[in-house]
Specification:
By secondary structure, the protein is α+β, with helices and mostly antiparallel strands. It folds into three domains: 137 residues, Arc Repressor Mutant, subunit A (Orthogonal Bundle), CATH 1.10.10; 113 residues, Arc Repressor Mutant, subunit A (Orthogonal Bundle); 67 residues. The protein contains twelve helices and eleven strands. The strands form four sheets. A three-stranded antiparallel β-sheet has the order 2-4-5. Strands 3-7-6 form a three-stranded antiparallel β-sheet, covered by helices on one side. Strands 9-11-10 form a three-stranded antiparallel β-sheet. The radius of gyration is 23 Å and the shape is globular.
């Protein structure tokens, strides 16, 4: 009888330019020491950097510039590293065939050079290496989404859904309220009632994940008697239109993202800003107008430039090339290069 194939290991999954891999055991963890959004992002980058040898007792080296994310300096890196070193998490594992809880540190000893363009050398603790080496479930995280989410609750919820999204016969999972608080990293004594947890943590996190990811997610309360004691996490993959809307949102400026998600404020400002200049008619002969949001994004990203002049340059440049799949995104990418070459 043929030997059954080994289960696919998490270490067999490979990061790429647009995404990184996170072992499932490090997604649904209960933080004894709560971490910030910046800490969680930085830790994901440390895991990605160490991936090729993450299950071996070696040191890993990364440029501090690669840990900044969208921040423009190194001032937060040291504080995040120290919190990660002191953080203890509880991981659900199987030991001798029985379910068990393993308590591990997230990060071992490290050395940070003090130069602005310096390096960080770090270690993955031995017990954590063993957990990662035995892992067979993982979340694939899109880099753009990870940096676009604005709260640690949204990032954690996104990771939970990415871990479960490809399960073939399952589209929901159940947690006790205490389990969910622990996984989300809610500090002890905070958001103790269901109404506060829902208003301050769950609803904003669901709104962000639904706006920016490939999945729709909801968290439904389950009552025991008159009290909410459990929740059901539900998810389903968006259709093509929904995924396209998420990609466009990621391509546009984050300015105004919340208003686009939640709708305009109840009261309009007393004085509306002057309307943007209309697209000149000479551009009509070179191609159909782009989306209104694309022109608004170009104005915010590249103030001082004549966006319609740059559009004309882009149209001339692309005339003999294949038509782009997404003209709005292609124009913004061209504009970035144009601005770098033609500073004002």
């Amino acid at each position: 009888m043929a030997k059954p194939p080994d289960r696919y290991r998490t270490l067999d999954a490979r990061p790429n330019d647009g995404s990184l891999v996170k072992p499932g055991e490090l997604v649904d963890v209960v933080e004894v020491t709560p971490l910030t959004l910046a800490d969680r992002r930085l830790y994901n980058l440390l895991l990605e950097n160490a991936w090729d040898a993450i299950d071996r007792p070696v040191t890993h080296v990364i440029a501090k510039a690669d840990l900044r994310g969208t921040h423009n300096s190194n001032d937060r890196i040291g504080a995040s590293v120290e919190r990660l070193m002191s953080a203890i998490v509880k991981v659900q594992v199987v030991w001798d065939g029985e379910p068990a809880v393993e308590r591990v540190q997230l990060l071992g000893g490290n050395i940070e050079t003090l130069r602005a363009d310096g390096l960080l050398e770090y270690e993955i603790p031995a017990r954590l290496r063993q957990i990662i080496g035995n892992s067979t479930v993982f979340a694939r995280l899109q880099r753009e989404v990870m940096f676009a989410l604005t709260s640690k609750y949204a990032l954690t919820l996104y990771e939970m859904v990415q871990k479960r999204g490809n399960l073939r016969w399952r589209s929901s999972d159940r947690f006790s309220l205490d389990e969910l608080r622990g996984i989300l990293g809610v500090p002890k004594g905070k958001l103790t009632s269901w109404s506060n947890l829902k208003l301050r943590s769950i609803d904003p996190a669901c709104a962000e994940v639904n706006q920016l990811s490939d999945y729709v997610v909801e968290v439904a309360p389950i009552k025991t008697g008159r009290r909410v004691t459990h929740v059901e996490l539900r998810w389903w993959r968006k259709d093509g239109a929904g995924q396209g809307a998420a990609e466009r949102e990621l391509a546009f400026s984050k300015v105004g993202r919340r208003e686009r998600r939640d709708g305009p404020p109840a009261e309009a400002p007393a004085h509306s800003p002057s309307p943007a200049p209309a697209r000149p008619s000479w551009l009509d002969a070179r191609g159909a107008a782009l989306r209104t949001e694309t022109y608004e994004t170009a104005r915010m990203r590249f103030p001082g430039y004549d966006i319609y002049y740059v559009e004309g340059v882009w149209r001339d440049w692309s005339r003999d090339r294949d038509a782009p799949r997404d003209p709005d995104r292609a124009f913004l990418a061209f504009f970035r290069t144009f601005a770098e070459k033609n500073p004002i």
